[in-house]
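Today's session is about reading a structure prediction critically. Students often jump straight to the picture, but the first step is always the sequence itself: look for stretches that repeat, for charged clusters, for runs of hydrophobic residues. Only then move on to the predicted structure, which in these notes is written as discrete structure tokens rather than atom positions. Here is the chain we will use throughout the hour.
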Amino acid sequence: MAVQVKAKTDYTEGSIIQSILKMGLPSMIGFLAHHIYAMADMYWVSRLPNSEPSIAAITFITNVLWVLFSFNSLIGPGSVAIISRRYGEKDYDNTERAIKETILLKLFFGTLLGLLGWFFVREMLMFLGATDNVLELGVSYGKILLIGLPIMYATYSFFTAMRSIANPAIAMALMIGSNILNAVLDPFLIFGYWIFPELGLAGAAYASVISYSLTFTVGAIIFGTKYTNVRMHLIGKTSVSLKSMIQILKIGTPALLGEISFSGSRMLLTPLIATFGMSVVAAYGVGIQVFGFGIMLIVGIGLGLSSLIGHNLGANKVERAITTANQSIVLSLGILTAFGLLTYFLGGYYMSIFFDSPETIAIGKEMLQIWSYGFPAYGVFIMLEQIHSGVGHNKPFMVMSVIHGWGLQVVPALIVTSYFNLDKIAVWWVFTISGYISAMLFYVYYRRGKWLTVKV
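Below is the predicted structure for this chain, in token form.
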């Protein structure tokens, strides 16, 4: 009797919009779950007696983690491009090899950067403007998270790999499960409910490390079963190699430089924002979470799109890849326009969930209303980034990140505050206007079509 082989999922056939939604929606839901957890994390922390210093500490350490997580882009974009392209070519042995290589690289770099961050976290927070109680809270919170950085890095590779082999629903389930566990652990570890110790802000960090560790374990187990389109074996038909790992790093290097530029510019803006007071920093931290919620809508769809474009080009279906990309840009514009409208009218309500101070709520509401005008532009910008990332063409994002972060945000923000003596409102408008200029420049480059000719 012939052995039946499980049919591999193929989204390079049929309705394009259905393929986008089938690949993108699970990714979007998974990332939304992650961001809802981040906001829940902020909510529980806001219930502490020293809530504003604690939220300010998270805001500062988030900027440090942004820089360290930039190195995730050294590996992530290359892995998406190679895994999805090999899967589209139906070369499943080399697909498995690329997944293994990605996980090994993530563990190595996560360990290296986690150690570096652990030893210098105090100095980085001081550079950002953290002082006194906020500084001490940030150091203790950050050191715990940095211990878990290798597992966090590698866990994201499971999500990425599952999307790249057309198993986005499994990636979604893993992400949702991880974030539910994280959210459940938060109050128990922060406030010491039931048999757990009362750890305060540090409890939120321990909850994250525990949930990522369990998710990593479950992800490794699932990849060894028949439920994924590509199964990982302890010893595969094609062994890992240094040469192919270097290829992943080469593809990701421009993306790394772009992410460092973006996160570095945000890091440099944080001390500027801190000059307006800790209430502004706290409101800014919550505002970033609200803004990030909208961004995650597009990032989730975009990550599914990256793999889908890789599948189409791997199957040599160029016209389908173009149509898929164009429809995704329109979709991103519509989603973030709607989210911008909600944010404009509900900005004050969002802030009141986290703060009792009328002054802090008013600061946050005004900030979100100004930012909301720029949401549609950021939706297009991020989708364009994901399109180029999906084919392993990351140099345009690197260039645009430098232009956007430094030329259109840092320099103008310093000019309006230092030379024209304008306040934080001018900085919020700089963020919004820069989004439109960057999106237009990136779209003009996208229309040239060079992304269609990239080989990996």
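Discussion point for the tutorial: The chain has 15 helices and no strands.
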